[in-house]
Write a structure and sequence with these properties.
Blueprint: H1 13-16, E1 24-25, H2 30-40, E2 44-48, E3 54-59, H3 60-69, E4 105-106, E5 110-111, H4 117-127, E6 131-135, E7 141-146, H5 147-156
Parallel strand pairs: 1-2, 5-6
Antiparallel strand pairs: 2-3, 3-4, 6-7
Length: 165
C-alpha cells in the first residue's frame, strides 16, 4: 500500500504503479487468460506480442462482452452459483480456445512513468477504464496504475496543514 511521502498532486505513475505486471501473450487462449487473471486475483492485464510490446488489454469487461454475444447458449448450474470474480459468471470450460488477441481491447491506454496523478485520473475517466498501463519507450509494460491505486493515494494523503498566524 502506498505511503504518501510527497504531496498528493505531485505523485506520478511511477509512485502509484504496481510494477509486478502480469502479462498475457497474444497467442494465449481466452480460457487460459481467464485462469491466469483468476489465479492472480486481478480483473485485467496487458496483452503483449512476441517482443513484449503491449498491443491490447484483456479485462473482465471483455469476458462480459463475450458472454453477451453468446447469451443464447444454455447456462450450467455453476453459472448461477456464488461468484467471486467477474469472469466466474462463465464456466472456464465454456470459454473459447481462440487466441486472446481476438477478444482483447486493442489500442490500450498507456502512459510514461512520469505522468502526474491528475492526468492519470482524467485518462481513466475519459476512456471509462479502470487501469492505465505504464510503459517504457518501446511500448513494453513496466507497471499498471489502477483506479484503486489512485483512490488509495487520495485516502492516504495528508490533509494540508494550516498555518497558525
Amino acid at each position: 500500500m502506498l505511503t504518501a511521502t510527497k504531496p498528493l498532486m505531485s505523485l506520478t505513475a511511477n509512485d502509484l504503479m504496481t510494477s509486478n505486471v502480469v502479462m498475457i501473450p497474444r497467442e494465449m487462449s481466452l480460457r487460459k487468460a481467464a485462469q491466469l487473471l483468476s489465479q492472480h486475483q486481478i480483473s485485467g492485464a496487458p496483452v503483449v506480442d512476441a517482443e513484449g510490446r503491449c498491443i491490447g488489454v484483456v479485462s473482465a469487461t471483455d469476458f462480459i462482452h463475450w458472454a453477451q454475444k453468446d447469451k443464447d447458449r444454455p447456462r450450467t448450474a455453476a453459472a448461477t452459483a456464488d461468484c467471486h470474480c467477474a469472469w466466474q459468471v462463465i464456466e472456464p470450460e465454456e470459454l473459447p480456445l481462440d487466441q486472446v488477441g481476438t477478444y482483447m481491447t486493442a489500442d490500450p491506454v498507456m502512459t510514461p512513468a512520469n505522468t502526474p496523478i491528475g492526468t492519470l485520473a482524467r485518462m481513466m475517466l475519459d476512456a471509462h477504464i479502470h487501469r492505465v498501463i505504464v510503459r517504457d519507450e518501446r511500448r513494453r509494460p513496466i507497471g499498471i496504475v489502477s483506479s484503486t491505486d489512485v483512490l488509495a493515494a487520495v485516502a492516504h494523503a495528508e490533509p494540508p496543514r494550516r498555518h497558525e498566524p
